[in-house]
Amino acid sequence: MSAPRALTAGYNGTVPFICAPTQIVSCTPDAGREKTSVESVYFPRFLTFGIGANKITGTRPEPL
After folding, report:
1. What is the largest CA-CA distance in the chain?
2. Nearest to 17, CA basis, from 62, 58, 60
3. Bridge partners of 37?
4. With CB atoms 3.0 to 4.6 Å apart as the test, which of 9, 35, 43, 58 could cross-link to 47 if both were Cys?
5. Residue among 46, 48, 45 nearest 16 (CA)
6. 17 with 8: CB under 8 angstroms?
7. b or e along 41-62 (b: 16 or more beta carbons within 10 Å of the residue's beta carbon)?
8. 36 or 9, higher pLDDT
9. Can you tell me the distance from the alpha carbon of 26 to that of 35, in angstroms, rounded to the nearest whole number?
10. Exposed e or buried b per residue across 16-32, where buried means at least 16 C-beta atoms within 10 angstroms of its C-beta
11. Cβ count within 10 A of residue 11
12. Strand, helix or coil for residue 25
């Protein structure tokens, strides 16, 4: 899902933004694609997108 055009109209890429994914698509050679929650895999809770720096960062939660 992408952001609505009205929300991105004033964004020029100079300031990083944070995203909190709730679902991801897991791909495997034998099973195809499957939607899953971020809690079910070791995935960062928050991702910081630094568009100007071409960098995406995130910190994974502590393993259970």
Report:
1. 43
2. 58
3. 23
4. 58
5. 48
6. no
7. eebbeeeebeeeeeeeeeeeee
8. 36
9. 6
10. eeeeeeeeeeeeeeeee
11. 11
12. strand
**What pTM value is reported for the model?**
0.62
The domain limits of the chain are 17-58
* Residue whose entry in the numeric block shows the structure tokens 């050679």: 29
Tell me how many degrees the CA angle 42-36-48 measures, rounded to the nearest 5. Answer: 55
How far is the C-alpha of 45 from the C-alpha of 60, rounded, in Å? 7
Q: Classify 4 in phi/psi space as left (phi over 0), alpha (psi -120 to 50) or beta.
A: beta
Distance CA 31, CA 6 (A): 37
Instruction: Find, among 44, 39, 45, the residue nearest to 64 by Cα.
Output: 39
Output DSSP code: residue 31. Answer: T
Is the pLDDT at 10 greater than 80? The verdict is no
